Amino acid sequence: MKITVIGTGYVGLVTGACLSDVGIEVTCVDIDQKKIDGLKNGILPIYEPGLKEIVERNYAKGRLNFSTDLSEAIQGSAAAFIAVGTPPGEDGSADLKYVLAVADQIGKTMTDYLVVITKSTVPVGTAEKVRGAVANALDLRDVDFGFDVASNPEFLKEGAAIDDFMKPDRIVVGVDSDDAQKIMDKLYRPFTLNGHPVIFMDIPSAEMTKYAANAMLATKISFMNDIANLCEKMGADVNWVRKGIGSDPRIGNKFIYPGIGYGGSCFPKDVKALARTGRENGHTMRILEAVEAVNDDQKSVLFNKINAYFGGELQGKTVAFWGLSFKPNTDDMREAPSIVLANLLLKAGANVRAYDPVAMEEAKHDLGDTITYCESDMDAVQGADALALITEWTEFRVPNWEKVGAAMKTKVVFDGRNLYRSAIVAEAGFDYYGIGMGENIAEKA
Fold first, then answer.
1. C-alpha to C-alpha distance for 445 and 308, rounded to whole angstroms
2. Fewest beta carbons within 10 Å, which of 206, 301, 361, 441?
């Protein structure tokens, strides 16, 4: 079976690589010649654990190919995945210009029956726009190749995308024809042999499922952050609260960890887009608008704690960042809380020294040379007045607090992920401030 994947970003590259790893012949297409040349030489545009090895292995075996020529790649393909970006517009809506441009190109180059699959996260109704773009291009050519459109949203967690694709909780597919369902069933059969279900449904429901899933997870995060902020005012410890509610199987223990807000390519964009869709259809998504507002505020929580600790006098202070990416095991800096915190500190006259295992090059696109990029976690804390834990990378889990304290001017830790046990840090002579632990720094300052 041969397929084409258009777009070699996060979703497209993971999809193409994993499908090739089960024996499907895949060509990944991108208009960026530099990116394609890099992929042929084992240089990936993203960091994702395990992905490089899969790409190199299947490229060497000839099952995974890279090209800028869609017309050549699509010949003989049973299906074409559209996996290009859908960046948010100023009004929060998903920008579909890249998706529809690809659909137009598919219509201009296809020469036989094809299933055109939207893999990008797109609003309900996009499949029909894709269908129209392909049909219009075929009409202009005065040809009548049959085609179907399907929706196959991705449910990949950055940092665990390979396992999520190869061992999925579920595979959601929206189709409206038997032919399309047969091809999608054949495509995903290698992943269902171990019991991973394919859920076939209508196309609009598949499109909505993706947005609803991300919106629910974002809601859990913002809810827990709201509870954490109330815990601080009431003298409660959100860590105990989290354990208490997480043991209820109706709630579960996932996505209820308080912190400094969610970021990344999915949650912020998808919450905005779904809220926008609601408004366009005369329905206000009141919960989602609150979710977004809480998250925006949460990204300032660590700055407020640091500012209060130093009595509002941050001029000339140096804050060390451990972590920059929005979550561990990725170099993704999109909507990362670290960007908000760094800019607030810089505006207040503070200096920032940061270390992240993989995201520093990406961070430069957002922060430039306004902060100092360090070679290690210990390099970052040299001469620092405060340490801020931003991203819970594994290598930050068990620091040598004695060495960290000896390197710093002021022994204070602001734990944005509640990674550390406050008693252990305090025993090492540090002041410790986490999220939602009944503290009132303003009273102590």
1. 7
2. 361
For residue 254, what pLDDT is reported? 93
381-396 pLDDT tens trace: 999 999 999 999 999 9
Q: Give the per-residue pLDDT at 385.
A: 98
Q: What pLDDT is attached to residue 440?
A: 53
- CA atoms in the 13 A half-sphere facing the CB of 382: 10
How many whole angstroms separate alpha carbon 122 and alpha carbon 95?
9
The percent of residues above 90 in pLDDT, for the chain, comes to 90
Residue 444 has pLDDT above 60, yes or no: no
Kindly tell me if the per-residue pLDDT of 200 is higher than 60.
yes
Architecture of domain 299-444: 3-Layer(aba) Sandwich (3.40)
Provide the terminal-to-terminal Cα distance of the chain, rounded to the nearest Å: 66
SS3 per residue for the chain:
CEEEEECCCHHHHHHHHHHHHCCCEEEEECCCHHHHHHHHCCCCCCCCCCHHHHHHHHHHHCCEEEECCHHHHCCCCCEEEECCCCCECCCCCECCHHHHHHHHHHHHHCCCCEEEEECCCCCCCHHHHHHHHHHHHHHHHCCCCCEEEEECCCCCCCCCHHHHHHCCCCEEEECCCHHHHHHHHHHHHHHHCCCCCEEEECHHHHHHHHHHHHHHHHHHHHHHHHHHHHHHHHCCCHHHHHHHHHCCCCCCCCCCCCCCCCCCCCHHHHHHHHHHHHHHCCCCCHHHHHHHHHHHHHCCHHHHHHHHHCCCCCCCCEEEEECCCCCCCCCCCCCCHHHHHHHHHHHCCCEEEEECCCCHHHHHHHHCCCCEECCCHHHHHCCCCEEEECCCCHHHCCCCHHHHHHHCCCCEEEECCCCCCHHHHHHCCCEEECCCCCCCHHHHC
For residue 366, give the nearest of 396, 334, 389 by alpha carbon: 334
Active site residues: 266
pLDDT of 109 above 50: yes
Fold of the 2-201 domain: Rossmann fold (3.40.50)
Q: Do domains 211-297 and 299-444 have the same CATH topology?
A: yes
Domain boundaries, the chain: 2-201, 211-297, 299-444
The pTM assigned to this predicted structure is 0.89
CATH class of 211-297: alpha beta
Q: Helix, strand or coil for residue 195? A: coil
- Quick one: pLDDT band at residue 439, thresholds 50, 70, 90? low
Specify the DSSP class assigned to residue 235.
T
